[in-house]
Amino acid sequence: MGCIIFNRVASFCRKVLNRDSSTRVPEEQTLQVYQRQEHSISRKDISENALKVLYRLNKAGYDAYLVGGGVRDLLLDKQPKDFDIATNATPEEIKKLFRNCRLIGRRFRLAHILFGRDIIEVATFRGHHSDAPVQATTPKDSKQKPQISSRNREGMLLRDNVYGTIDEDAERRDFTINALYYSVKDFTVTDYANGVEDLNNRIVRLMGDPETRYREDPVRMLRAVRFAVKLDMDIDPATAAPIQELSSLLQDIPAARLFEESLKLLQSGQGLETYRMLREYNLFQQLFPILADHFTEDQSSQTEKMIEHILASTDKRIAEDKRVNPAFIYAAMLWYPMMIRAEEVSFASGLSFYDAFMVASNDILDDQVRTIAIPRRHTTTVRDIWQQQLRFARRSGKRAFKTMEHPKFRAAYDFLEMRALFEGHDIKELAQWWAEFQNADRNQRGKMVMNVNEGGNRRPRRRRPQQRRKKPQPKSS
Ligand code: ATP
Ligand code: MG
Predict the structure, then answer these.
(1) Residue 379 Cα distances to 361, 362, 382, angstroms
(2) Which end of the chain has the lower number of beta carbons within 10 A, N or C?
(3) Domains of the chain
């Protein structure tokens, strides 16, 4: 990027010094405006829908900027995942301008402008929270609104709907590299916290006092790691320092929000590296306490090997533009903890392994959804994939044919193949059998099933299946 032609010291920084310590920025910090010829962002790199929203807001007399990942990634010559817009129009004002608009979020109220499947997120400039009970003011009028901001005792923001000016909005963003604003009016990029310099030096740096900013929103710890990995940057030492100690604050985050975050972390295309870094900072352990119970010093447990494997293969699929199913990832990561739990349940209760397996599946998923609210449609798939694993072993008669008709057969078979990498000879053979069975014609399949009967089913058929689970009794009377 070219040199800075236009550089003015921002008085806004000094103004806030005595206000909200959480968003304090160093006094010498300057606000920099990069003119069109000094940066690489061109309108043709911005989605048509985002441009439409920017133009319409501008035309109606509001300020509107592209902000966040859209600007950051374009400056890095990367394709942005989405385009976020910030404006001084309130959500209600935005709604009036766009027929295809939906207001969402309680903690952080936003407008979604819908263009078919494409959604442009438009946020109203955020202002400062004072410690007194907060009344919100809107940027255009100062009509008072009820209870728009609140914090819990740890300093966590429970509501963040105090509107403000663009300067305040910039200070309330998380990282310097995310506080960059692109205007379609004059094509400038406004940099509030030396974000361009940090982009050039590849540094992820929180604005303000890191501990306070993490306490306000502990998810910022996850975001620091996500951006460091995604953008191949280092986390600034002061930004990294408090993470380990504050990691347990993630326990206060609603499980539904953590589900969304978990997808961004695991399905970013760099899931494996993200997991490793999250683990180093004791963050992964907060999201997946069940998995953490199986962590070892030398990372040698089956659970750890499976996590590494599933994340590496997910990354590969994403690189190949293939679909990834979050249920498959969750099923894989939680499989060995579930199996171990099933053994324990079976041992402690005397239940058959099948019944213990069902109990353990429920237990593990119930535990996991307490931290990460995996939606029911996915937990149903996780259960299906797991239950099919039991069915794979039972192939006699029509069973194998039935198993193949199950809607989740493909996923379950892929899962079996994956288990074959980590489990004993029997599972390898089983996976091999199923590979052949799928490729065989009807005749051959019949024969394969018969062979299973001949070879593997030495027990005579029983009329009374309820006896099957009983221990063999001595033959005497
Ligand atoms: P990407 O979309 O590539 O994951 P992003 O930076 O655009 O990255 P979003 O979650 O889309 O991330 O958020 C858009 C912008 O909103 C961010 O760049 C940041 O400025 C601001 N933001 C998001 N989450 C927070 C947060 N927890 N605290 C402060 N600011 C945030
Ligand atoms: Mg974004």
Answers:
(1) 10, 10, 5
(2) C
(3) 6-211 (3.30.460.10), 289-455 (1.10.3090.10)
